[in-house]
Design a protein that fits this description.
This protein has helices at about 1-10, 40-50, 80-85, 95-120, 125-130, and strands at about 15-25, 30-35, 55-60, 70. The protein is of the alpha+beta class and about 140 residues long. The strands form two sheets. A two-stranded antiparallel sheet has the order 1-2. A two-stranded antiparallel ribbon has the order 3-4.
């Protein structure tokens, strides 16, 4: 959900024209600008592709609690180091369970995720956990998603 929220936040700054391509009797078209983040095409594309980025995460173990979580190690597109990072190829089977979990969550909760995004809800992972699903244990910070 961190990946989805990052992309949606960036897209909220951009607007696109939407509306009918029909011409009214007075010769005008009904078109308006809406945030890209509320575009059905953008959101569908985002949810289709977001799980491909799970190889940007690695499994880490907390030395004290021995709890294991996936943490992002790769820079995001647009960050200064991104161009240098893309020159290297990283591959590990460690992210496969994360990618599978991502695909499962997207498939099962797509409508709920879209609903949260269109309501411009913040903290998507927390909202998905607390309002829309039973995916996470009750905790103040849902890092599982």
């Amino acid at each position: 959900m961190d990946e989805v929220e990052h992309d949606v936040t960036k897209a909220r700054q951009k607007k696109i024209k939407v509306g009918s391509f029909r011409i009214n009797p007075d010769g005008t078209q009904e078109r308006r600008k809406v945030p890209l983040a509320q575009s059905e095409a953008f959101l569908t594309d985002l949810l289709d592709k977001v799980c491909e980025r799970m190889n940007h995460y690695k499994l880490e173990e907390d030395p004290v609690t021995k709890g294991r979580t996936f943490k992002r190690f790769a820079p995001r597109k647009g960050e200064k180091i991104y161009k240098e990072f893309k020159k290297f190829y990283f591959y590990s089977d460690a992210y496969r369970p994360l990618k599978f979990a991502c695909e499962t969550i997207i498939e099962e909760y797509e409508d709920e995720i879209l609903s949260l995004i269109t309501r411009e809800a913040g903290h998507l992972a927390d909202r998905l956990c607390s309002e829309k699903s039973d995916l996470c244990e009750i905790s103040p910070n849902h890092t599982e998603l």
